[in-house]
Specification:
Blueprint (H helix, E strand, L loop, with lengths): L1 E3 L6 E3 L5 H8 L1 H7 L2 H13 L3 H5 L4 H11 L3 E3 L1
Antiparallel strand pairs: 1-2, 1-3
Helix pairs in contact: 2-3
Length: 79
């Protein structure tokens, strides 16, 4: 998935086919590196509350979370 910043035409590659695996392996750290702090905190809190069950569910939502995050910031998806 790639997104384009409409203010300066910068194109950033946001995720790869293995992004879900990175979320599974390093959990909240992946979200922090991507700058999606809301999900970094939510992932950590839910993993603690549910005794790591949420850690096995969160990777399935990686692409939709990243897409919504960048669209909310005003970036345009590049096909």
């Amino acid at each position: 998935m790639r997104f384009k910043n409409p203010q300066n035409d910068y194109i950033e590659k946001v995720s790869s086919p293995l992004s879900w695996l990175w979320v599974f392996l390093i959990g909240p750290i992946y979200w922090a590196v991507q700058g999606v702090w809301r999900h970094a905190i939510a992932h950590l809190a839910l993993a603690i509350i549910t005794m790591s069950i949420a850690h096995f569910i969160y990777p399935f939502f990686t692409y939709s979370i990243l897409k919504k995050h960048y669209l909310k910031l005003g970036w345009k998806e590049v096909k």
